[in-house]
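Any chance you could type out a protein's amino acid sequence plus the matching backbone structure tokens because I've never seen that pairing?

——
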Amino acid sequence: MKSNLHPTDYRPVVFSDDVAGFAFLTQSTAQTNDTIVWEDGNTYPLVKVHISSASHPFFTGEEKIIDTEGRVDRFKNRAAAAEARKAELTNKAKKVAANKAKKADK
């Protein structure tokens, strides 16, 4: 087994979820340049996170879409375009079938 594989520079760090207004102090090796004065009066490094147990749907029981990069909107637009294309092709196929039926009747 490899030696010296795990980090040894653990230090107290505050993780903050600004959306939920939730922060907690724990040991971590995460690097950051931000700091915060914690409840005990000491200054600790601050790591900002987009989602935490206070805002994650699994823990809150409610659906919340946190989309910082527009991924959800792009996905919904692609799904709507695919549905419209599918409907267009279905209508086109029905028209072709109707035209063939009319020609067969003549």
Notes: The CA atoms of residues 89 and 95 lie 10 Å apart.
